[in-house]
Write a structure and sequence with these properties.
Strand content: 25-35%
Oligomer: single chain
Helix content: 25-40%
Largest sheet: 8 strands, mixed
CATH topology of the largest domain: FAD/NAD(P)-binding domain
Order of helices and strands: HEHEEHHEHEHEEHEEEEHEEEEHEEEHH
Number of helices: 11
Distance between the termini: 43 Å
Radius of gyration: 21 Å
Length: 417
């Protein structure tokens, strides 16, 4: 079924009884050209671009739970292209361009809202750093505007500008940044991939990866063995565990990142706002809830829940930046498993096993990277050559020390990125 305004109108007038399932529920076949382990945003996007761009439709996505049940449904929905270093900047610039045409491409409303993102700064040194970042963004072809104190006040009058410890000096404004509806992104890619013939296999956990003579031959699952010429591991915080089935040890750690949402409120925050003196970021959803988050919980874990000390830390940062949030009631919180690399930048590469590919290490950048990650991994799988905008995301950079992309400048400590 193709979605349109007319279809919504006619369904509304007939009791919404004519909608068809968004995708099929096929049984797994015994053999595929490509298997993608992981039915989150990155895996579904990869399957879609394999089918759309390269005509590869004998493809299956294997998900141990339900589609979109992992990090793609557990994040703060921010979309941006305000990276600084070569390697990251061109990749996220490419991703933002894909975001801007995504709804028309998928014929699906992912609620992409380019409401603008403002990174605040609170010192002269931070102003200089953000000026450099803004210039790098402009050189990359993206948009950036350096705001002074009055410029920020015009957009964000509700902030505490005269906080004794963290007075607001100004901000870097990224007008094309914004948000999207996280689960709608997964559903849109799933529906579009299914329409092109990709099999989406839910409740199918991979329990082993078959290798013969240094080449991948398929996988073992809870629904039987499945053969394949190529296999891609796209499992976010579980990447290390899945890669271990193939005898690989990845240079990643898995940490928990909490997010929070308040009760629905009248519109008050029209942008995405990032605090410069504490890792805190906030926006308002279309339903009215304030969606916000902060730092990692700072210890390795596979639990999809956070700890109370970090929750308290995030609330303190929120109150420091905008005291009005103290009147809002927190409705719920959740945790996503973040796969953190030593330099804070991702990996999209072939492994040392022929036919086995890896897409992981997204740190804080996973949701905004979904379109470009899928596009670039599909290119790599189809051509066995890295996409031009992802050629820096090599797995061996951590072994050789060449090509490290340390965006935060914090060194080789996973949890600081």
């Amino acid at each position: 079924m193709r979605y349109s305004a007319l279809k919504i109108l006619t369904q509304g007038l007939t009791g919404n009884k004519g909608w068809t399932p968004a995708w099929r529920q096929p049984e797994p076949k015994s053999d595929y050209d490509v298997l993608i382990i992981g039915g989150g945003g990155h895996g579904l996007a990869t399957a879609y671009y394999l089918a759309r761009t390269y005509g590869l439709t004998n493809v299956a996505v294997l998900e141990k739970g339900y589609l979109g049940g992992g990090n793609v449904g557990r994040n703060t929905t921010i979309v941006r292209a305000n990276y600084f270093l070569p390697g990251n900047s061109e990749f996220y610039s490419h991703s933002l361009k894909l975001w801007e045409g995504l709804e028309a491409d998928l014929n699906y409303n992912v609620m992409h809202s380019q409401r603008g993102l403002i990174n605040l700064f609170h010192s002269d040194g931070q102003r200089d750093a953000f000026a450099r970042r803004g210039n790098a963004m402009i050189n990359q072809g993206d948009d950036a505007e350096l705001l002074d104190r009055d410029g920020v006040r015009e957009y964000l009058p509700y902030l505490d500008f005269d906080n004794g410890r963290f007075p607001i000096y100004g901000g870097l404004y990224h007008p094309r940044g914004g948000t999207a509806r996280h689960d709608a992104v997964a559903w849109g890619y799933a529906r579009a991939a299914d329409q092109r013939g990709v099999d989406l296999i839910q409740n199918c956990e991979v329990t082993g990866i078959d290798i013969s003579g240094g080449k991948v031959t398929g996988v073992q699952t809870t629904r039987g063995a499945i053969r394949a010429k190529k296999v891609a591991i796209v499992t976010a915080g579980r990447s290390g565990q899945v890669a271990a089935m193939a005898g690989l040890r990845l240079p990643i750690e898995s940490h928990i990142l909490q997010a929070f949402v308040t009760e629905g409120l009248k519109p008050v925050i029209n942008h995405v706002v990032s605090f410069g003196m504490g890792h805190f970021y906030i926006s308002q959803s279309d339903k009215g809830g304030l969606v916000f988050g902060g730092d990692l919980d700072l210890y390795a874990s596979y639990a999809q829940r956070g700890n109370l000390p970090m929750a308290e830390h995030v609330m303190e940062a929120a109150m420091t930046l905008m005291p009005i949030i103290g009147r809002a009631k927190v409705l719920r919180s959740w945790g996503g498993i973040m796969d953190m690399t030593p330099d804070g930048s991702p990996i999209i590469d072939k492994t040392g096993i022929e036919g086995l590919y890896i897409d992981c290490g997204w740190n804080y950048g996973g949701f905004k990277a979904v379109p470009a990650s899928g596009d670039c991994l599909a290119h790599l799988i189809a051509t066995d050559k890295p996409h031009e905008v992802a050629k820096g995301f090599r797995l061996d950079r951590f072994r050789t020390g060449r090509g490290i992309i340390d965006e935060e400048g914090t060194g080789a400590q996973h949890n600081l990125h």
